[in-house]
Amino acid sequence: MQDYLNIGLIALWPLLCCIFFLKFDTLTATFIAIVGGMLLLPVGVEIDFPLIPAIDKYVASYIGSIVGIVLIKKNTFYWLGQKGTVRWIIVAIVSISFINFIFNTNPLYNGVWKAGLTIHEAISSSIATYLALLPLIIGINIVKSEADLIKIYKLLVVALLLYLPFVLFEIRFSPQLHKLIYGFSPHEFKQQIRDDGFRAVVFLGHGLLTANIYLCGFFSLITLTKMKQYFISKIINYQLIFVFFVSLILLKSATAIVLALVGLVVFYTNFSTVRNFLLRAIVVFACIYPLVVYTSILPLDWLYANLQGIFAIERLDSLYFRFYNESLLLEYLGDYFLIGYGGSGRAILAGLIPDGTWVVWTLRYGFIFWVLNVVLYSVYVFQKADSCYKRNAMQIFSVMPMIILLDQIPNSSWSMPFIWLVSGGLISLSTYYNKAQT
């Protein structure tokens, strides 16, 4: 019975989204539909129709948003974003599934024999890839000005403050809300135990995702403060920044805390040229990292031997294990480095579990697919502005998505549609600035 209720909730969410669009402006309604669905709906519940990708809480949110934008608000919707580079990158990303299929029709042995890909899998994979890009495309369509992007950042802060009691409950009593409300736990319980306490999962599927969305809230507040956009007063902003940083500590994610500190360095770099260099360096690093691992440039054994006196051995063992696994996985990929092995379990080597988004996507669709996604996600970082204010504004807005891009090396937080919504908004804002320039 509980399963049917969960499926019914996913099915009803697009209808609820329509109500949001009747009550609120386009941007607010879209935010509630996408981020509300991410924060509240059950993880892993899918409506599985034949021949098309399953509809989960994310896809249901995108469907509801597009229906609201097109049919209720009567806005024009550009299905491939905007004209120019962005449109062609999206077309290329969606088309890679067919190239992937052409080179993967033969069976593959990865511990067990896996069948070759079929045209049906190529079509389904292409649709799934496009659906994953929809938050970015929606962001391009709904963000028309700097004020719109500021509003998205403010809405996230408010949403996460309302969410905080659930997070604190799970930190204190263990991650159990998903099981209490939806009847099952979507995660492995022992993974959420840290330092004699618990990571909060709530309805996000993993404690690391909870930490990452609060990292986004932390960066949103710093962005708003740097842009002189305050909740009542400047002091309130600083108090909220403190609350969110304490939340990150309580969520027990060392990676999120380190990324928060790295973000602070980028935010408070006094020179615009240095900040711009750092943001672009992150993009370049993310693009070439798979190549670095594939060519075995990193001397893992030497690093492990020489860092034992600097870092705790448990942490060092964990990092070494992860890097060694990544090298084994790319060695397994071999000559298919550029195009990947495709889905249907072909991209997973038996006994090894990939962690970072980069390795999952490279194994499945290849290095080219990974680079195209990074470029699409961060194309605005390379846009020029005609004034010091616009240049600084774009840099400040870009810090959060660029730091989250860094997180795709060790973790997989690109599953959060919010960050793609922001990136789409930044693509639109950079276009708006360029139009104002001309």
TrEMBL record:
The keyword Transmembrane helix applies. The chain crosses the membrane at residues 51-72, 84-103, 123-143, 155-173, 200-224, 236-269, 281-307, 328-352, 358-380. Keywords: Membrane, Transmembrane, Transmembrane helix. This is O-antigen polymerase. It comes from Alteromonas naphthalenivorans.
